[in-house]
UniProtKB/TrEMBL annotation:
Secretion signal span: none
Gene Ontology MF term list: ATP binding
Organism: Sabulicella glaciei
ABC transporter domain: residues covered: 6-242
Protein name per its UniProtKB record: ATP-binding cassette domain-containing protein
């Protein structure tokens, strides 16, 4: 079986007396597109924060690229974070910098490459996401879909082994959203990057997800794991069925 790049074992997260989830265990395998899904407030963003080490779990263990991310500090932590990329919902571009300069930022921060080489790398990442002709545009001058693409280019600037995407289709119309799904699929195929995507967009989940887990607020944990297309056909769990068949309800 393909190597696991993330292993979550019996993970729980509590804020005070509020248990968001517990007993969450799963693996993400190298090269797959892994989707974290579930309704509002079930803890998708919280789980994403645990996976990238922004906070430690209340219980359990999360290993990312064989390292227990919550326990790392200093250089070891920086070294691991360099191997992963994150795109937040907004795309998080700096408005005063053009797209090329935005993508150059992480390269400047983490490598000693000279200016022209940095620009070359940043330009090639923008080319990968279909923005090769827009490198001198400012974020305010481009569409919402292009902002997301630029955010992905920036998250890929350092050739991450795992790319985390937080609600990539949020705020996009269905056609733009479908275009973004195609981009994610082609990047996964061409670069071999592992994708972990947080979303509740059913069309996206079915279009891009190799495997998924579904979190549930009432159950305070995972209620499904597997290939989303198979879950849609085969799951007998009422909440899972309602989610995958909601168009028909
Ligand atoms: N820093 C925090 N302190 C206290 N409670 C928090 C904190 N972060 C999240 N929560 C709680 O955890 C629960 C899950 O929130 P989270 O944002 O992870 O859900 P979500 O599935 O991402 O929701 P949405 O799809 O609406 O973004 C909520 O009850 C929220 O109030």
């Amino acid at each position: 079986m393909t190597e696991a790049v993330i292993r979550a074992e019996d993970v729980a997260m509590r804020f005070g007396t509020n248990t968001v989830f517990q007993d969450v265990s799963f693996e993400v395998r190298r090269g797959e597109i892994f989707v974290i899904l579930g309704g509002s407030g079930c803890g998708k963003s919280t789980l994403l924060k645990l996976l990238i080490g922004l906070m430690p779990p209340s219980a359990g263990r999360i290993a990312v690229l064989e390292e227990e991310i919550a326990r790392l500090a200093g250089q070891a932590r920086r070294d691991l974070l360099r191997r992963i990329g994150v795109m937040w919902q907004s795309g998080a571009l700096l408005g005063s910098l053009n797209l090329l300069e935005n993508v150059m930022l992480p390269i400047e921060a983490h490598t000693a490459l000279p200016d022209d080489a940095r620009a070359l790398v940043a330009g090639s990442k923008l080319g990968l996401v279909g923005l090769g002709d827009a490198t001198t545009r400012l974020p305010a001058e481009i569409s919402g879909g292009m902002v997301k693409r630029a955010g992905i280019a920036r998250a890929m600037a350092l050739d991450p082994e795992i790319l985390f995407l937080d609600e990539p289709s949020a705020g996009l119309d269905p056609i733009t959203s479908a275009g973004l799904d195609e981009l994610i699929l082609s990047l996964a195929r061409e670069t071999g990057t592992t994708f972990v995507v947080v979303t509740h967009e059913l069309q996206s989940i079915l279009a891009i997800g190799d495997r998924c887990i579904m979190l549930d607020k009432e159950a305070r944990g995972m209620i499904a794991e597997g290939d989303p297309k198979r879950l849609k056909e085969e799951s007998t769990h009422p909440t899972v069925r309602a989610f995958f068949h909601r168009e028909a309800l």
